[in-house]
């Protein structure tokens, strides 16, 4: 008699949930890795599974060391506190950035000219000098080009300004072909990467940087309650997410994210083929549909989606690696209904 399937053996509800890639479910291979993980104390830096993951990600991103943290928010906040331990200082970031909107130019990405326009380089005591630039890639599913990223970082370093990257979804930028994980990450003084969004691990992010930076960051992690004792169970699942979902190659070769990107482009085509408009171009795994321009309420997509067994947000559709073909079939039915409503109003 075959064993009863459990939530580790299938995506479950995540297969039909397009609200975010945070929805992804941990897999059975992650559970198996957890069962084999070491169970030593990471606060004492003695856990082999955790140390191995930190060294592995540091190596893949071109940095000296890594530090496992509980969430992307914690990773960004620890990194920023580590960089900015002595006031006065100010931080430049995109107005849409997660550290500003959720952690309290052009419409696609920041440019060096945007940075230069807002940076404070003088010693005028009426304005705090810029000590840190925090970039985010991807942002809204859009990719910051590698060349522009390098321009900003080189300019910042020439003015003794540190640069941090919120790279929660940097995996997607690498898979898109814009540049490898190393190409992007090694430019920065620090980078945070998330394991629990598109990679599907149950919990966790990591910060990478110089060894001196990570040693200092460890103190700040502890001060805000982020010290993890038996961290191996988290690190083991995260490692599986990196290897199986992102892939072993520098641009995600052998992983599952490219298929999600391909499906996202199909979703965009399904929408535009029926006359719908997009808010942003589709570059990775996010499709931003313009519901308002269709003369519909923002709640329309979610309500019609619910009738088809899908969970949808207002305008952002996120395709993760556990979205199936039958999900896309249902989504096409939703688009047909929604955009026909528009036609009936014309």
From TrEMBL:
InterPro entries: ArAA_b-elim_lyase/Thr_aldolase (IPR001597), Low_specificity_L-TA-like (IPR023603), PyrdxlP-dep_Trfase (IPR015424), PyrdxlP-dep_Trfase_major (IPR015421), PyrdxlP-dep_Trfase_small (IPR015422). Keywords: Lyase, Pyridoxal phosphate. One of its GO terms (molecular function) is L-allo-threonine aldolase activity. The keyword Lyase applies. Pfam families: Beta_elim_lyase. Residues 17-292 form the Aromatic amino acid beta-eliminating lyase/threonine aldolase domain. One of its GO terms (cellular component) is cytosol. The keyword Transmembrane helix does not apply. GO terms for biological process: glycine biosynthetic process; L-threonine catabolic process. It comes from the Eukaryota. This is Aromatic amino acid beta-eliminating lyase/threonine aldolase domain-containing protein. It comes from Aspergillus nanangensis.
């Amino acid at each position: 008699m075959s064993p009863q399937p459990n939530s580790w053996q299938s995506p479950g509800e995540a297969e039909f949930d397009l609200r975010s890639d945070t929805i992804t479910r941990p897999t059975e291979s992650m559970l198996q890795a957890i069962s084999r993980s070491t169970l030593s104390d990471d606060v004492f830096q003695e856990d082999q599974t955790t140390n191995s993951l930190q060294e592995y990600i540091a190596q893949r991103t071109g940095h000296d060391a890594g530090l496992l943290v509980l969430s992307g928010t914690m990773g960004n906040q620890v990194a920023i506190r580590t960089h900015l331990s002595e006031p006065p200082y100010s931080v430049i970031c995109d107005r849409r950035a997660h550290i500003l909107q959720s952690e309290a130019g052009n419409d696609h990405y920041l440019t060096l000219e945007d940075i230069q326009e807002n940076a404070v380089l003088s010693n005028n005591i009426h304005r705090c000098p810029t000590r840190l630039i925090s970039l985010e890639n991807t942002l809204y599913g859009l990719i910051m080009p590698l060349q522009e990223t390098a321009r900003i970082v080189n300019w910042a370093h020439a003015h003794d300004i540190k640069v941090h990257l919120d790279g929660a979804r940097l995996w997607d930028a690498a898979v898109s072909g814009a540049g490898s994980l190393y190409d992007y990450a090694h430019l920065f003084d620090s980078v945070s990467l998330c394991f629990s969004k598109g990679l599907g691990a149950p919990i966790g992010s990591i910060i990478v940087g110089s060894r001196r930076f990570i040693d200092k960051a460890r103190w700040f992690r502890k001060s805000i309650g982020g010290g993890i004792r038996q961290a191996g169970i988290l690190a083991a699942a995260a490692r599986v997410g990196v290897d199986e979902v992102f892939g072993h190659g520098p641009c995600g070769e052998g992983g599952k994210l490219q298929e999600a990107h391909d499906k996202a482009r199909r979703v965009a085509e399904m929408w535009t083929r029926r006359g719908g408009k997009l808010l942003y171009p589709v570059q990775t795994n996010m499709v931003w549909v313009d519901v308002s321009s269709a003369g519909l309420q923002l709640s329309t997509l979610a309500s019609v989606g619910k009738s088809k067994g899908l969970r949808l947000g207002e305008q952002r559709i996120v395709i993760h690696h556990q979205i199936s073909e039958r999900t896309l079939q249902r989504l096409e039915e939703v688009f047909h209904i929604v955009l026909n409503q528009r036609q009936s109003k014309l």
